[in-house]
Design goal:
The chain is α/β, with parallel strands linked by helices. It is built from 15 helices and 15 strands. The chain folds into two domains: about 130 residues, Aspartate Aminotransferase, domain 1, CATH 3.90.1150; about 240 residues, Type I PLP-dependent aspartate aminotransferase-like (Major domain) (Aspartate Aminotransferase, domain 2), CATH 3.40.640.
Length: about 400
Amino acid sequence: MKYNFDQTIIREGTDCEKFDARNEIFGRTDVIPMWVADMDFAVAPAITDAIKRRAEHPVFGYTMRCTAYWQSIIGWVQRHSGWALQPEWLDFSPGVVSGIVFALRAFTQEGDGVVIQPPVYHPFARQTRLNGRKVINNPLRQRADGCFEIDFEDLDRKLAQAKVFLLCNPHNPSGRVFTEEELRRMGELCIKHDVLIVSDEIHCDLVFKPYRHLHIAALSEELAQRTITLIAPSKTFNIAGLSTSVVIVPNPEIRKRLQQEFEKMHVDQGNIFGCVALQAAYSSCDEWLDEAMAYIEGNVRCVQHFLETHLPSVKMVHPEGTFLLWLDFRAWPMSHEEIYQFLLDKAHLGLNEGSMFGEEGRGWMRMNIGTRRAVLEQALEQLRQAAVAAGLGK
């Protein structure tokens, strides 16, 4: 590989939420943190070089997003998904979650229904409730092979009560990358019930072969006209701290209303280094991403083999995308809370406990494997030793 994903990088002492907030999050500092969704890999050199060049200029005043910035987004999406974006469709948001909130505030009133598909990224429910909207759950179902699927009959009923459908694709935490058939069926139901689609596609570049991410808005003109798509380089290139995301809205009326919400909150300025990093990432980092995905896929295989060999009582949902694993501990003779505390106190692992993604996540844990193989192997060995001591492993 051209890039070294086994490089040891000390993140402690950098005001790093993942490491420096361990005591606050977990009540102890001796855990391997494998929770919040950023990676422990060095950022692609093209990104750091671009930031360094800009940092050499002695003035960091108000900035603007130039034509090259927007063209880098258009080029990236065209190369990786074949969707031909128009420049006027694009806007800025400081984050994907921020974009979701702006959309909810622009297109719903307090008390309006918003459909989500738990177990799902926890801000979907949290931000909906904090803004006085009603969460309507369309839970995913787990098939006999472990894969999660959509309950379309239930979705049909739930959309009849809603104004907005929050889609998470690739799905976090299940790792599903929805097929064209699934996306079209969801889209048809949204058309039937005249529901706006707000599609969080932040993990769209993090997809394992042979799976392929499809933008729901790119499937038809009718879907494009009722969809707000949110993407970002933050997860893909490990630059979440630069708070720079992209909003894609082909419908001019929807775009105008959303822009008015941005203006009310005065959040459209962004920051210099976020702009520079996005442009470099989307213009020059295709090879870095290919190698990163190959490395992460190796981490997936590592966990799968380890669990099958040493901890068959813990089931892993094989991810189609993301660097997040959804682990099923429900065979353990413990409550959800006891499992989580066991992982902290005995295995010294800091994972996301599954109920934060909805009640459907009880008995599950989310593990971030965007880290060095040696760290992952150490975490798995700590889990094995703790499980063996408790009579749960071999």
